[in-house]
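Database export, one record per block. Field names are fixed; values are copied verbatim from the stored entry.
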Amino acid sequence: MQKKPKVSNIKNIATTKFFNIQSMDVAFSNGEKRQYERLKPSENGAVLVVPMLNDDTVLMIYEYSGGTDRYELALTKGKIDDGETPLEAANRELIEEIGYGANKLTFIKEMTIAPGYQSSVTHIVLAQDLYKDSAEGDEPEPLEVVEHQLSNLEKLVYHEDLTEARSIAALYMAREIVKNQHS
């Protein structure tokens, strides 16, 4: 079994409004030492929501993504605000981004992105029994909401605008959960 390395000398080397870039010294049990850098986001984490209009129809959005400099097809997502639970944040993001709330929210799994250098955690949530609701969010422009069918998931995951791994994994997990609810 691996012995966790000793981490020391953690320093913020750059700060933005979203991240702290930290350096840290890491000493492994075999005597090897390395300096790592990591992105350290806010402590609250984020949510990614799979909103199901019915047992087969998932609501997705087109949203501009600065990292790829294009509009990406994705699931509703956002940061967890201070004092919110992941499920509360999921419902708030749904209302702000797609104009629906959910009567049934199910936590699926925590996921990371590039854990070798990034410490953020995303809580994946399945949203069912949707109802219309809306609130102003922090998006700079209205989001385009589109319907896709989970029964056509194998084709959907190869859509050129759907590239985010968290969304793809969450869609597969949600499809299995919904399928098992009716077996």
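Remark 1: The mean pLDDT is 91.
Remark 2: The chain is about 20% helix and 45% strand.
End of record.
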